[in-house]
Predict the structure.
Amino acid sequence: MAGDAIVAEELTYRYGELVAVDHVTFNVAEGEILGFLGPNGAGKTTTVKMLTGQLRPKDGKATLLGMDVAKNVDKVQGEIGVCFEETNLYEQMSAVENLRLFARLFGIGRFDADALLRRVGLGGREKDRVETYSKGMKQRLMVARSLVNRPRVLFLDEPTAGLDPTSSEAIRNIIIEERKRGATVFLTTHDMLEADKLSDRVAFMDQGKIVALDTPHNLKQQYGKRALKAKVSTEKGELEDREVILDTPETSNDIQQLFSQEKVVTVHSEEASLEDIFIEITGRGLQG
Amino acid sequence: MNWQIVRALIAKDFKLYFRNRFFALITVLALVAYVVIYFVMPSMVDETLEMAVYAPVLPPILEQAGSQGLELVLMESEEQLKEAVIGGEYLAGVVVPPDFMDKLMSGEKGRLDVYFGTDTPEELQDSITVLLEEMAYLQTGQMLSVHVSPEVLGRDMVGIQIPMRDRLLPMLAVIILMMEMLGLASLISSEVVGRTVQALLITPMTIRGLFAAKLIMGVSLAFVQALLFMAVTGGLNQQPLIIIAALLLGAIMVTGIGFLVASGSKEMTTVMAWGFPALIVLSVPAFGVLAPGTVSDWVKAIPSYYLVDAVYQAANFNAGWSDLWNNLLILLGFDIVFVWLGITVLGRKLR
């Protein structure tokens, strides 16, 4: 069984009086993808900053690959890759120059920037200045930069936010490849479908606390409601929606009633989404 | 400290600096402009005073005036003299009536009309009046009943006055250093605003390495340009080692100030807003060199005074280590203070 790549114990951070992260405890196994979800201001970024050595916890302890982050910042930062939410590339340098700079900072002597750029779909534009790139291309370069040192732990903050489907898919594929390589991925996102599709487990954070942490399947089992969605035709010939909640004592009767009393046009089952579960747990949506 | 990382950061900073069209252009153009300014400035000091004279009968004493540093230019009429003075050709014009000598010889009081241009300084008007009175005494043989013992305080510059362009030299060198301070501050603030520094700090690079790179980059950019300027203008012909040492210390000082400016700035506009007041204050000692007497002793409280003074004394008066060691030592003290302050304040912002 793989050990833990990330361990957070009672991790706490305050900005003055405001408790941004409140005694958070969790672990992420090596090779696991953890989806880290929560609305803006929930404390996700502050948590990531403590895990990556950018902030020193006020209380508690963060351990990464067995090293106390606060005491071994340099060593920890040599083993991680971080892709920030906001683009922070050297725009007046080319993609190759950006990657080579970071390779030097990681002490990598022989570094094949072209191969990495081809991998993220930027082959052919590697010598162009980043300022001429589209948002999607910049985001792919941000991901590429986080992979320069072949990190054992990869922190990705909204890596697909605002991207076109092709760019998003390319980045998702890279995340899956990195997991196959053995990297642990800490994925912060607002995209519930993405989190559901990629994550082994998801953590919901709200008001500085982890309010739920489990596999998407278990969370859906525990908090979600499966439903049967149907479209029925009325006497006037118009289509209307009907919903039957599954897994309740009344389910059988409700289904029988639907088919006997209504003219059912289409029918399909629907699982609860992670967003539904977050609302169920916190009483509010993820966009807040 | 990992010097491989520091080297990579320095290379990156130079690349970014010269890829910024504004800074690349301003660096090259400013250097050329300063050299041009130096060479178009007068290289000689004209110590003679030209004065227009209309005298139908020229008194003998005025004929000898040329040897006193006073050059008299004879006019053909009083009207021509007035026009020349009004036109600014001469600072003053003297009309000597035809009977002037006769009156003096007969013991009567002679009259001289002296005309001054509107912009002739009052001190000069007084001097010319006194000079004419003295010449009248000499002419009549009645010497003043006082003995004047002239003494020049400090270096006697009669005949060896410093040409304007050599007075300008330290000022231009200091401006070059300070312009680079703005460039460095802008580069740093753009890294903070663009959050690229956040990406750097998530690597094994330390904040000490980052500051080492910025310090080396800022100092070399400022120092090399100032040195180049001094070399091209012949400013290193005397006491080159002292001038190099002073410029190096000056470059370190402006880099420290650049850190401070960057810590209070968010983009180019705020860099200018903080940087220009600093630039103006640091330029004040240079004005004291350009126009002695315009600044008082408080100028010594401005750190750049010790840089300007060291460069000026060494380049123009061949002042040596024994004359300037205290300037360089004080400058070193200011370097330590500014670099420490800059690193502390900016470091807090970066963290």
In short: Confidence is low (pLDDT under 50) at residues 144-149 of chain B.
